[in-house]
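The data are quoted verbatim here:
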Amino acid sequence: MSSSKAIQVIKKDNRLIEAKYKLTIHEQRLLFVLLEKITTDDKEFNSYEINISEIAEKFDLNKSNSLHLELQGAADALLTKRIKLVDTENDSDTVTWLSRSKYKKGSGRISIEFHQALKPYLLQLKSHFTQYQISAVAQFKSSYSIRFYELLKMYEYLGKGEQFYREFTLKELRDYMQIEKGVYTNFRV
């Protein structure tokens, strides 16, 4: 197994996990591949090159022209998708995920750069972060499933290897996932 396949870990500051944002499944998958390219030694973001074939393989997707277009669109959308980070009850910071997305037609590769304001949430993380393997979410088909998983994973330490739980109000979940009022009004158990 190659070293790039061995290091499939996502690491995020807990403030980023609890931030308010809404992404599509392809936008999240693209971010996962970007996040796994960050090393513990990185002090600055690099320009990361993503191979669309790598994404297709990692998430068991059919590699097609439409996938290329969807992922290119996802990269472009991440230039404008906002994240509302809440530092304290009175302070919040709103940033975008990416500062650059460059695609050369026919190459099957996208060059991407994270927004510099995300450095404290993704680089040199020493405490108050959550990490997990991409394989834990690779088969998820919904962006909400991924967000819910992260919100739970963040509290896994409370179980100390045993069962644990976290309670949410419906309003809290709607806020985390940026679900507008009137959408998903019926919940079934």
